[in-house]
């Protein structure tokens, strides 16, 4: 087991990539604190893990809520004594062209996908320093690297996540705080279904997305969870500031 006795916080673990990551971490021996804005979904995944005899606990938390994050994380740090891994995965997709997307929507996108990562990391940093190390993993995207039409705010947020990852890696290196991100291609989750549904022809959008992946299918949440397990494990002890692209070859073969 690659994460035996580690304690990991996984945000956005109520669905999709976060949910699979929580399960994979638990299977590797970690105790997983399942964070989600939707308390019922957090409880559902934590219960599922616990029923399998593994360690987990749910935590309802909106990662954009500064006051709550400060309060809840400081309580959690006291309760858990030692937290080893923080996975900043919660994210949303707010689509719209530059002409249509309002500043309010822009702010919502940035608050959820980017500011929350800084907020969570800022709160746990001293704890990691005191413990002489820790691991922060962020969910970026292939959208960190390419521009997508009608998706400016999302792409900008994810490009910034990748840069934030590098900067945090530099800040943390001398304190043994490793920081990396994953860049998924299109992954079958409720979020991506919402993205397709927002397109004029959802089925055509889905078919087009599949066609972008040379491997011939969209990703499964488990494909990304496996990358997170690797980056959280000792196998990645010399990896920091990196972006692990997990995209079925998408970035190699853009039309
Ligand atoms: N699905 C994809 O194709 C894809 C591709 C690249 C990157 N990503 C990124 O992966 C991450 C997970 O995406 P997903 O597709 O699994 O999404 P999802 O919508 O399936 O699951 C996201 C979970 O995050 C929770 N959440 C949303 N806002 C939150 C908040 N403010 N505080 C706490 N929890 C919150 C939701 O309740 C949900 O349970 C996101 O950062 C997303 O941008 C997804």
| Secondary structure category | alpha/beta
Shape: globular
Distance between the termini: 41 Å
Bound molecules: nicotinamide-adenine-dinucleotide
**Structural domain count:** 1
Biggest sheet layout? 7 strands, parallel
The percent range for helix content is 40-55%
Number of helices in the DSSP assignment: 8
Order of helices and strands: EHEHEHEHEHEHHHE
The low-confidence runs, each spanning 5 or more residues with pLDDT under 50, are none
Strand order of the largest sheet: 3-2-1-4-5-6-7
CATH C-level? Alpha Beta
Which radius of gyration do the C-alpha atoms yield?
A: 17 Å
What does this structure look like?
By secondary structure, the protein is an alpha/beta fold. The chain has helices at 16-27, 39-51, 66-80, 103-130, 152-172, 190-197, 202-211, 221-232, and strands at residues 7-11, 31-36, 56-60, 85-88, 134-139, 177-184, 243-246. The protein has a single domain, classed as Rossmann fold (3-Layer(aba) Sandwich), CATH 3.40.50.720. The protein is built from 8 helices and 7 strands. It has a 7-stranded parallel β-sheet, sandwiched between helices. The structure holds nicotinamide-adenine-dinucleotide. The site of nicotinamide-adenine-dinucleotide has 28 residues, from helix 1 and helix 6.
């Amino acid at each position: 087991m690659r994460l035996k006795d580690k304690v990991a916080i996984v945000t956005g673990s109520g669905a999709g990539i976060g949910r699979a990551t929580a399960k994979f971490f638990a299977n590797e021996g970690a105790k997983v604190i399942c964070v989600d804005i939707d308390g019922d979904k957090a409880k559902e995944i934590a219960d599922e893990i616990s029923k399998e005899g593994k360690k987990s606990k749910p935590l309802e938390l909106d990662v954009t809520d500064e006051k709550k994050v400060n309060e809840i994380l400081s309580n959690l740090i006291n309760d858990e004594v030692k937290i080893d891994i923080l996975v900043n995965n919660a994210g949303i997709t707010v689509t719209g062209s530059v002409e249509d997307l309002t500043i309010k929507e822009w702010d919502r996108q940035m608050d959820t996908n980017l500011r929350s990562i800084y907020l969570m990391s800022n709160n746990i940093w001293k704890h990691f320093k005191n413990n002489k190390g820790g691991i922060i993993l962020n969910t970026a995207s292939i959208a960190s690297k390419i521009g997508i039409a009608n998706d400016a705010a999302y792409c900008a947020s994810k490009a910034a996540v990748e840069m934030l990852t590098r900067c945090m890696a530099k800040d943390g290196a001398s304190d043994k705080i490793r920081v990396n991100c994953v860049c998924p291609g299109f992954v079958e989750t409720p979020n991506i279904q919402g993205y397709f549904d927002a397109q004029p022809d959802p089925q055509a959008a889905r078919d087009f997305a599949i066609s972008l992946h040379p491997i011939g299918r969209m990703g499964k949440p488990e494909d990304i969870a496996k990358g997170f397990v690797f980056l959280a494990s000792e196998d990645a002890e010399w990896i920091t500031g990196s972006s692990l692209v997990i995209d079925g070859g998408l970035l190699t073969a853009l039309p």
